[in-house]
Design brief:
The protein has one domain: Up-down Bundle (de novo design (two linked rop proteins)). It has 7 helices and 2 strands, in the order H-H-E-E-H-H-H-H-H. It has helices at 2-21, 33-39, 50-67, 71-99, 104-122, 136-160, 167-180; strands spanning 44-45, 48-49. It starts with a helix and ends in a 9-residue tail after the last helix.
C-alpha cells in the first residue's frame, strides 16, 4: 500500500510541477491530450493545480500506511482512496466527454488510485462487533457517501468557476497557440 501511495505521490507531484512551470509532460508532445488537459480549466481546482490535491491525498495515505493501519487509520485511508477514485473517475469523464482528450499520466494516476482502493479492501481489518465501521455493509454506505460528496463538490466547484459560452475553450486554445509559437498566415477579404 505504501508503494502505491508513493507512486501516486510521485506522479501527482510531477504533474503539479509541470503545471506550475508551464512545461510539457514527458512522452507527450505539444497539442496532444496531455497538453489539452493541462491547459484546460479543469487543471486547477480551488486555486491550486488539480494534481496538487492528488499529491496531498497520496502523501496522507502514505503517512497512514507507514504508521500502521489500526482500524480507524484504515478507515481514514479507505475514505481517502474512495475520494481519489471518485474524483479520478469524474476527471476522466470530463477529459473524455468535455475536453475530448486523454492524458496518459492522468490515467496512470487514476489506475493507481483504483489499485490502492483494491489493496485497502483486501487488507481490511476484521470487523469487531455489530457497530464496527469496517463491516462490509457499513463500508458500502461510507464509500457511496464519500464518492457522492466528492463528485458533487467537484462538479460544484467547476460549475461555479465555469466561463460563459466557449470562453474556456478559446482561452485554452489561445494559451496553447501562444506557447507553441503558432503563426497565422492568411488573408481576410
Amino acid at each position: 500500500m505504501a508503494a502505491l501511495a508513493a507512486a501516486g505521490l510521485a506522479i501527482s507531484t510531477y504533474l503539479t510541477a509541470t503545471k506550475l512551470a508551464g512545461g510539457t509532460l514527458l512522452f507527450c508532445e505539444t497539442g496532444t491530450g496531455c497538453d489539452i488537459v493541462q491547459a484546460s480549466r479543469y487543471a486547477v481546482f480551488l486555486g491550486a493545480p488539480t494534481a496538487a490535491w492528488g499529491a496531498t491525498l497520496y502523501a496522507a495515505v502514505l503517512v497512514l500506511a507507514l504508521t500502521g493501519l489500526a482500524p480507524r487509520r484504515w478507515l481514514g485511508a479507505f475514505v481517502l482512496a474512495v475520494a481519489a477514485v471518485a474524483f479520478s473517475a469524474y476527471m476522466t469523464w470530463l477529459s473524455l466527454f468535455e475536453l475530448r482528450a486523454v492524458c496518459p499520466w492522468c490515467l496512470v494516476d487514476a489506475g493507481i488510485a483504483v489499485a490502492l482502493l483494491v489493496v485497502l479492501l483486501v487488507r481490511r481489518p476484521a470487523a469487531r462487533g455489530r457497530r464496527a465501521a469496517t463491516r462490509p455493509a457499513r463500508l458500502v454506505g461510507i464509500g457511496l457517501l464519500t464518492a457522492l460528496v466528492t463528485v458533487v463538490f467537484a462538479a460544484g466547484v467547476f460549475t461555479a468557476g465555469a466561463p460563459s459560452g466557449d470562453a474556456g475553450y478559446q482561452e485554452a486554445l489561445a494559451r496553447h497557440l501562444k506557447a507553441s509559437g503558432a503563426i497565422f498566415y492568411g488573408a481576410f477579404w
